[in-house]
Structure formats: structure tokens, C-alpha cells
Design a protein that fits this description.
Layout: E1 7-12, E2 15-20, E3 26-32, E4 38-39, H1 57-60, E5 67-68, E6 106-107, E7 115-120, E8 127-136, E9 142-151, E10 155-157, E11 159-161, E12 164-166, E13 174-177, E14 184-186, E15 202-203, E16 209-210, E17 216-217, E18 221-222, E19 228-234, E20 240-245, E21 250-256, E22 263-270, E23 283-291, H2 298-301, E24 316-318, E25 323-334
Antiparallel strand pairs: 1-2, 2-3, 3-4, 5-11, 6-7, 7-8, 8-9, 9-25, 10-24, 11-23, 12-23, 13-18, 13-20, 14-15, 14-19, 16-17, 19-22, 20-21, 21-25, 22-23
Length: 335
């Protein structure tokens, strides 16, 4: 009997990349810069190697980057303003960020140029399965990722990519760089009791976010000064974001197809969540290209909502038998 591999790694001239079977997550990834420095920009949760019984799959070894199909999770949410009501009884998938985020992928046999893995969804799910291919750029400190989503039945689903980046511990030491004038929306009720962003607000400039206490905050410099947990969705994002780590002297770039993922969701995990396994010790930034209404799940994302009414798609239609393909890139350079 063949034992399923739990992880795999691939080295190339400009670094080492690894993947985990659980969640199909991109694991520790080290890039070698032209000046010889080694940079590891992706986050690994501080509890990733601890025994934490009862955690959902997505949290057990939380790390790096992975796809979310569907994105978010349905919940019992009363209508608020223009946001529709939803129920915790799932219409499609009961997992946070989808079946693939919480279960084991199959890592394919070793390949000298790429890491490949796939997962089959349950027979009752409208999605048949996912595949992803991670290819290091032989000429640069960068990796190119291809995601395939194959539909079993016609369906409309929110989808997203979920890179999570490591932050320096010095307040404001990382600058988030997004080109152009971009608006944003905050979470309807705040994603956590400690949240400081004013809920259910639209701002024409994502650099100016209203807070619950009536003041304003520019969230483009992280870590934030206060311990908190926040979600901010940038609308009609340009398809590239740069993260300038001024403390360590490098810039990480994430680029994607904006036609496939028209929004960019920032998840500020700023020592806010106190319950286990977070325990007030998680500092990271989710930088998540999405076709979704925040992470509110399929019911709200496929309904008329304050984001879709602004002309920004919050779900994608999949036809039975269709294989949807998208590509994105993570690169690192000196700064």
C-alpha cells in the first residue's frame, strides 16, 4: 500500500519552496536575493507544530498560501443595512474556505521543475476537484502558481486565493503598495469583538478607514499599532500588490488576474484573537485576491449585496464539466 506524502519540497537556484498535503498549503518558502540574502516572506502560524486537539483542518498547520473554493463560510447573520440575511445551514459547503482548505491533497510524484497536487471533492459537491501546479522561475526569486477548478454541476460560488505574509514586529515597518485610486468596504459587524474598524463602511480611498471611536486610520502601514483583528476588502483592485518590508529590506509582490479576482481582501491578524489556538500571539497579513463578498460565504456572495451593487462581481459561475484555470505569481526583490 502506498502511503500518501504529507509534504514535498523543491529547490532551485533562487530558493526552496515546499507544500503540505493538508489544505494544499504552500509551506516554508525561502527566496535567495541577488545579494545573497535569504528571505522567507510567508507566515507559519506559531501553533503549527503544537498538539491542538479539535482544530479544523485549515487551522492545524496554518501557513503560506492556498486556494479557497468556495471562499468564506455561511453563518447565522441578520440583515444589516444593504447586507442580506444568511443562515449557518450550509447551502454548498460547511467548511471554512471550502473542502480543499481542510482536507488532504494528493501530492504527485516528484518533478524537477514543479510541485503538483490535487484533491477530489465529495460526490455531493458541485465542484469535482482542484489541481495546482507551483513552478519556480528559473531566472528569478519568484514562483508561478496555476490553479484549476473543475465543476461537477452548474453552480455560482465565491472563490479566492489566500496568501498569508509574515510581518516584522516593528509597528508600521511594512508598507502596502497598491497602484491607483481604490475604494474599500469594512466588515458588516466587525470580524472579532476586538475589531476597531467601523463596521459596514465604504471609503473611496482605502488609505482612509473610519474607526469605531470616530477617528481615521491609514492601514497601509503594518503591523497596526493596536492589537486587533480586521478585514478590509479593496474593490476593483489593480491585480498587483507590493509589500515593502522596510525593517528587512525587501519587497514581496503578489500579482494575479484581476478579471478572475476583482477584489483584494486584507486580513489584519494583529495579535487580536485571544481564543486558542490564536491566544493573542498571531501576527500576520492575509493578502487575498477574491471574487467574493468579504468572507461571508456563498449565500451572501451569490446574493445582491453592497459590493455587487457597485458592479464588482462577488461570485463566479461554473458550468458542469468546465475547468477554470487561473495563474498568479509571488516574487521577492531587494528594496
Amino acid at each position: 500500500m502506498t502511503t500518501q506524502r504529507q509534504s514535498a519540497a523543491l529547490a532551485w537556484r533562487h530558493g526552496v519552496v515546499s507544500v503540505e498535503a493538508l489544505g494544499g498549503m504552500l509551506g516554508p518558502t525561502t527566496f535567495v536575493l541577488p545579494d545573497g540574502r535569504q528571505v522567507s516572506p510567508l507566515q507559519i502560524a506559531p501553533w503549527a507544530d503544537e498538539e491542538q486537539p479539535g482544530l479544523p483542518g485549515i487551522l492545524q498547520r496554518l501557513r503560506g498560501e492556498w486556494p479557497c473554493v468556495p471562499f468564506g463560510r455561511d453563518g447565522d447573520r441578520a440583515a444589516m443595512g444593504e447586507w442580506p440575511v444568511s443562515s449557518a445551514v450550509p447551502t454548498i459547503d460547511s467548511n471554512q474556505h471550502g473542502f480543499s482548505s481542510n482536507n488532504l491533497w494528493t501530492i504527485e510524484p516528484a518533478n524537477e521543475t514543479a510541485l503538483q497536487l490535487g484533491i477530489a471533492y465529495p460526490d455531493a459537491h458541485p465542484i469535482a476537484g482542484l489541481r495546482r501546479r507551483i513552478t519556480p522561475d528559473p531566472e528569478a526569486a519568484a514562483i508561478d502558481i496555476e490553479l484549476e477548478i473543475t465543476a461537477r454541476r452548474d453552480c455560482d460560488l465565491p472563490i479566492g486565493l489566500h496568501p498569508v505574509f509574515r510581518l516584522p514586529h516593528l509597528t508600521g515597518a511594512m508598507q502596502l503598495e497598491v497602484a491607483g485610486e481604490v475604494g474599500a468596504v469594512t466588515f458588516p459587524r466587525g470580524p472579532d469583538p476586538v475589531s476597531i474598524f467601523a463596521p459596514d463602511r465604504y471609503t473611496a480611498d482605502w488609505h482612509v478607514v473610519p474607526l469605531r471611536d470616530g477617528t481615521l486610520l491609514d492601514p497601509s502601514r503594518v503591523p497596526l499599532a493596536r492589537h486587533t483583528e480586521e478585514v478590509l476588502q479593496l474593490l476593483d483592485a489593480p491585480g498587483e500588490v507590493a509589500l515593502h518590508n522596510t525593517a528587512e529590506g525587501y519587497r514581496a509582490r503578489l500579482s494575479w488576474n484581476r478579471d478572475h479576482f476583482p477584489s483584494l481582501m486584507f486580513w489584519f491578524s494583529n495579535f487580536g484573537r485571544q481564543e486558542p489556538p490564536w491566544s493573542g500571539r498571531h501576527l500576520a497579513l492575509g493578502v487575498e485576491p477574491v471574487c467574493a463578498a468579504l468572507d461571508l460565504g456563498p449565500q451572501i456572495s451569490t446574493s445582491i449585496n453592497p459590493i455587487s451593487t457597485r458592479g464588482i462581481p462577488t461570485a463566479r459561475h461554473f458550468a458542469a464539466g468546465e475547468t477554470f484555470r487561473t495563474r498568479y505569481r509571488i516574487a521577492v526583490e531587494p528594496a
